[in-house]
Here is the input.
Amino acid sequence: MDSINQQQPEDNFKDLVGQDGIDKIKELAKAAGSCFFCTKIVSGKAFDTRPMAAEKIDDSGNFWFLSANDSHKNQELSEDPAAQLLFQGGSYSDFLSLYGYATISTDKEKIDELWDPMMKVWFTEGKDDPRITVIKFTPTEGYYWDTKHNMAVGLIKRTYGAIVGETYDDSVEGTIAP
Here is the structure.
């Protein structure tokens, strides 16, 4: 039986590394706005996850979050720094899964840099709240699914494919790494 990828008349695989990977990571993460931050990743067992929004993605592709030192997430990361971030920007594009490692610090300069006044909802004492920690997530590998052009082109191709009974979807996917 043919898979959908074998029925696709266009090349829809493109692996991205280095600056191309970082640029695509930033683009897809920005389109999503937030992610599921997953910890306790063990084959055959359910992982723990929670929604989070990165305060910053730096030029090396690292994600920076603010988190409470008494959170389950921080406890889990202190036991095992492996983590996975899952993003969905739209219903047909902007999907990203990143695997990597997280480190936790109390770097005051980084807290000042990342601080947003809306964070006071979680840190009631403001940016000097003693519970604030910085999580730096460094991706090591990942996979993405996106469109080659844009959603309008993708819709036209899917519509044409439906009319002629062939697979045209303007998708592109591949491994991704900074």
